[in-house]
């Protein structure tokens, strides 16, 4: 067909008119709040709300989406929620569910919980006409399809990519616009817990047609004495018709928001829907460098100037630093040697699953930093942007990893998006293009793929090296060509021999440890699925944390190591299976409570004095028996005391720990550390009494905004105020002016709920029947309609000869009445209508004329009858479609109060403001102990 020239003229006119009349700069609006959610179904169209059943599907005709994808779909009965959201963590546990994904009854094998629908309406002002409107998703797990006002935008298959869609052409300015997202989590991408749903942020972006493209600045730095040379490549995108004079103005601001460098340069405007790159250079005097101790950051503000006036403003955070690997001496940061003290981590947390709030991302990195860690490996997928922001701010080096190796568009395209999005983060020091790809690690296929991905990565960012984590042989295949060798576990090959063969290849331990430990447990109990927290060799071919760190710390040519893992995570409950639902590998549990290995690492990864004594000293029934006592320390020597009696002083060997076998008697066990002959610190374990009072300790007492969170530690104390390390009290929580996001306790076998949410069930109306009436007057009392006159509703209706009104009869079934809230959401099947339930007329809500909150007194358990009397809607055209669906009932069972048992003395609750602006009141009670209430302020 010939192009519609009039359409093209009008499009260019609208773009040009809007551009000239509304030169507003870029807006990026978070739209996480106020979504509707419901479960669909992968293969039952009725359970998938009739999606894609129309004669013309959304793939056949533009804008022809049906079911929940359509703009007019009625979603009022759906659950309301805010993003980020992980529906998998909300599901119960099942032995039939996925071992690797933590046994949650969702996704693969659970079709009723594998498809999730999200819908949201947004208003876009008429003043935005002429701007480019973009929907931006940070990550959706997984295989999601997106529609805007019924127009299909595309499919994003991976659950880890950030992606966006231009919706400008589909916007209804000055009206409500509908976003619909169908998420299919029925297939797994990884072998760890991955969650399900829109678990990262969503934004609406508004720009002028001429603007900096997404991820459109690339900043590199070079240190020159006290100064730094800043190179910026900016990508200008023109989605309009402007061809006049344009300039780019770059301004660099320091952490105090002081401008320290600026430059303005003309740039050639690219053609319609084309891009142009512009390279610029700036110099910063007395530059503050980014490093792991002083992570100083700068902000580059890039402005697009059209005839001297700014029409776009794009901000990029960056740091000034230089990193290089040396095959003999390891890693250097700003010319100084740095030993990598890293951890691998997945992206879930107790209570919230993968839907981790920004503050919790920061909190987790801070826990690792406090442990002495300086490096983080994103295992094994692209991270959420906020995690990298936290690493930038806290001084945590990052290995940024793509999800899957390969050489085609799926693989290289995803790698390109990852690098272009993340390459300005100073924390990112290395790209990882794969992990333990056993089918190709040791052969020519692996070599070829690695070489392509490595060269491709360098074509986008030549400033960072590439690595691959390798576990099945260190002397052939991928390991022979990868730029920085990634060793996964000492037991999988001879690292020294590989280094002797490839002396010019830098190396680091990309995974090490894989030890088993349960927080607060000191005797392995296989029957209960608990592993002792002492640092032991986990398996014959694996090594303890102490063995692993000693190996890497004493080899200068190795840049360091990444422990598997920093935090426990859902899934992979090695060495057990059901009912264990989390891993045992972490230095901390899924709540971030430290296991004892944390203190070994603090001793040898940090600089501050450490003395940590284990185990606890509550061992009733073991009086007179030996207890294995350990001390993790970096002191010169430690003396151990039991009830003030010395059990001897021992010297500390570097990278080691101390042990005593102590005959147990209740009382006080004390370890005193000495340096240079002087006492520097001590640690004490005391036999405690029974629990007497609850103690709530938030990580901060004032929350900044409605999206901020407080991570609250829950513990119990005895009458003397001592923490009871073996307590397992069931705690019940209450909250006012706030929302609980989730609870946890670090018990790998706990099958308790992480979240307590209202159960929302949609109950269909069935067997719709009708009979014609002779009057259009709607009754106030239900008439005794002739039973033999009912016929199938809307069947063979003659729309040219409609009755004045119709009576409809339908039924619905309620499984229970006690404790439920029942609401009928009416979908108009006529112009005016009255509704009767079990013969009683019901009134509409004041806030919605088509919403009926039903009084429990008129309802029956089992079958109920509904009558609707309505005047008919007439067709204007023969092809008009008249709604024949009278609506749906929403049955809500309110959530039970949040509860959680303590596990070895601790639990955790994560809370968030409710938006009222009032202080949060969080309470905790338990049978037989004194309760606790804390107040969390809201403010700056």
In the predicted model, the low-confidence regions spanning at least 5 consecutive residues are 1-23
Rg is 32 Å
Give the overall silhouette.
globular
How many distinct helices? 8
Largest β sheet strand count, sense and barrel closure = 8 strands, parallel, barrel
Percent strand equals 35-45%
Give me the side-by-side strand order of the main sheet.
21-22-23-24-25-26-27-28
Rounded mean pLDDT score:
95
Task: Give the CA-CA distance, first to last residue.
Answer: 59 Å
Total number of beta strands: 54
Look at the helices and sheets and give the structural class.
mainly beta
The residue fraction in helices comes out at 10-25%
Descriptive labels:
single chain; 940 residues; mainly beta; eight-stranded parallel beta barrel; six-stranded antiparallel β-sheet; 8 helices; 54 strands; 38% strand; disordered N terminus
Structure summarized in a few sentences:
Helices cover 10% and strands 38% of the residues. With 940 residues, the chain is mainly beta.
């Amino acid at each position: 067909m010939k192009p519609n020239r009039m359409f093209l003229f009008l499009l260019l006119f609208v773009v040009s008119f809007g551009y000239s009349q509304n030169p507003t700069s870029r807006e990026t609006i978070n739209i996480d709040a106020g979504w509707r959610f419901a479960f669909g179904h992968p293969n039952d169209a009725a359970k998938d709300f009739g999606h894609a059943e129309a004669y013309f599907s959304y793939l056949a005709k533009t804008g022809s989406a049906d079911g929940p994808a359509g703009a007019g779909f009625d979603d009022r009965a759906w659950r309301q929620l805010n993003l980020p959201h992980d529906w998998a963590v909300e599901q119960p546990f099942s032995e039939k569910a996925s071992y690797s994904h933590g046994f949650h009854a969702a996704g693969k094998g659970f079709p009723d919980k594998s498809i999730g629908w999200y819908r949201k309406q947004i208003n876009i002002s008429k003043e935005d006409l002429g701007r480019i409107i973009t929907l931006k998703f940070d990550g959706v797990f997984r295989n999601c399809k997106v529609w805007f006002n019924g127009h299909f935008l595309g499919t994003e298959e991976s659950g880890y990519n950030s992606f966006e869609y231009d919706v400008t052409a589909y916007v209804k300015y000055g009206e409500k616009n509908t976003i619909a997202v169908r998420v299919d989590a029925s297939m797994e991408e990884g072998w760890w817990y991955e969650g399900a749903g829109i678990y990262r942020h969503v934004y609406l972006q508004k720009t002028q047609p001429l603007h900096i493209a997404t991820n459109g600045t690339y900043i590199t730095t070079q240190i020159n004495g006290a100064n730094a040379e800043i190179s910026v490549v900016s990508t200008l995108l023109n989605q309009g018709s402007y061809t006049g004079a344009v300039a780019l103005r770059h301004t660099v601001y320091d952490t105090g928001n002081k401008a320290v460098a600026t430059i303005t340069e003309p740039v050639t405007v690219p053609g319609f829907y084309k891009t142009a790159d512009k390279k610029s250079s700036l110099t910063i005097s007395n530059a503050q460098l980014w490093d792991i101790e002083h992570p100083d950051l700068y902000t580059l503000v890039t402005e697009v100037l059209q005839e001297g006036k700014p029409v776009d403003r794009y901000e990029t955070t960056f740091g000034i630093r230089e990193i290089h690997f040396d095959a003999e001496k390891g890693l250097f940061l700003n010319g100084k040697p740095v030993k990598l003290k890293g951890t691998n981590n997945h992206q879930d947390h107790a209570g919230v699953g993968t839907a981790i709030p920004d503050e919790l991302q920061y909190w987790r990195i801070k826990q690792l930093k406090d442990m002495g860690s300086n490096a983080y490996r994103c295992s094994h997928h692209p991270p959420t942007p906020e995690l990298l922001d936290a690493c930038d701010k806290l001084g945590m080096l990052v290995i940024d990893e793509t999800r899957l190796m390969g050489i085609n568009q799926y693989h290289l395209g995803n790698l390109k998006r990852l690098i272009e999005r993340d390459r300005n983060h100073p924390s990112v020091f290395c790209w990882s293009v794969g992990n333990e790809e056993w089918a190709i690690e040791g052969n020519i296929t692996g070599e070829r793929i690695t070489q392509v991905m490595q060269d491709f990565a360098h074509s986008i960012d030549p400033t960072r090296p590439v690595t691959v984590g390798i576990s099945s042989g260190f002397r052939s295949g991928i390991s022979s060509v990868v730029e920085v060798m990634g060793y996964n576990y000492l037991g999988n090959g001879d690292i020294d021999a590989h280094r002797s063969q490839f002396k010019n290849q830098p190396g680091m331990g990309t995974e090490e440890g894989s030890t088993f430990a349960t927080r607060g447990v000191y005797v392995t109990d296989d029957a209960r699925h608990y592993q002792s927290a002492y640092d032991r060799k986990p398996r014959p071919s694996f090594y303890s944390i102490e063995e692993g760190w000693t190996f890497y710390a004493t080899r200068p040519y190795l840049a360091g190591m990444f422990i598997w893992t920093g935090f426990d995570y859902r899934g992979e409950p090695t060495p057990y299976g059901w009912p264990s639902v989390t891993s045992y590998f972490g230095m901390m549990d899924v709540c971030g409570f430290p296991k004892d290995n944390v203190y070994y690492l603090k001793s040898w990864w940090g600089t501050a004095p450490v003395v940590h004594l284990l185990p606890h000293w509550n061992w009733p029934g073991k009086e007179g028996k030996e207890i294995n006592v350990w001390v993790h320390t970096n002191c010169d020597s430690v003396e151990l005391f039991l009830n003030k009696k010395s059990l001897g002083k021992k010297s500390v060997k570097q990278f080691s720990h101390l042990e005593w076998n102590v005959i147990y008697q209740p009382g006080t066990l004390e370890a005193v550390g000495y340096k240079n002959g002087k006492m520097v610190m001590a640690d004490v374990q005391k036999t405690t009494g029974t629990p007497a009072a609850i103690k709530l300790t938030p990580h901060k007492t004032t929350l900044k905004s409605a999206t901020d969170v407080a991570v609250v530690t829950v513990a119990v104390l005895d009458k003397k105020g001592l923490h009871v390390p073996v307590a397992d009290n069931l705690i019940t929580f209450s909250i006012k002016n706030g929302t609980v996001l989730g609870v946890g306790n670090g018990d790998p076998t706990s099958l308790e709920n992480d979240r307590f949410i209202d159960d929302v069930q949609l109950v269909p109306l069935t067997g719709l029947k009708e009979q014609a009436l002779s009057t259009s007057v709607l009754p106030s009392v239900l008439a005794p309609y002739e039973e033999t006159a009912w016929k199938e509703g809307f069947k063979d209706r003659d729309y040219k000869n409609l009755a004045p009104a119709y009576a409809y009869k339908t039924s619905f079934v309620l499984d229970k009445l006690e404790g439920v809230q029942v609401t009928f959401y009416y979908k108009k099947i006529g112009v005016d209508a009255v509704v009767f339930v079990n013969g009683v007329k019901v009134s509409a809500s004041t806030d919605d004329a088509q919403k009926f909150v039903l009084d429990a007194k008129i309802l029956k358990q089992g079958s109920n009858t509904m009558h609707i009397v309505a005047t008919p809607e007439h067709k204007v055209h023969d092809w008009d479609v008249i709604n024949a669906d009278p609506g749906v009932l929403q049955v809500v069972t309110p959530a039970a109060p949040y509860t959680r048992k303590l596990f070895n003395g601790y639990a955790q609750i994560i809370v968030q403001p409710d938006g009222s602006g009032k202080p949060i009141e969080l309470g905790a009670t338990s049978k037989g102990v004194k309760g606790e209430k804390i107040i969390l302020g809201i403010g700056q």
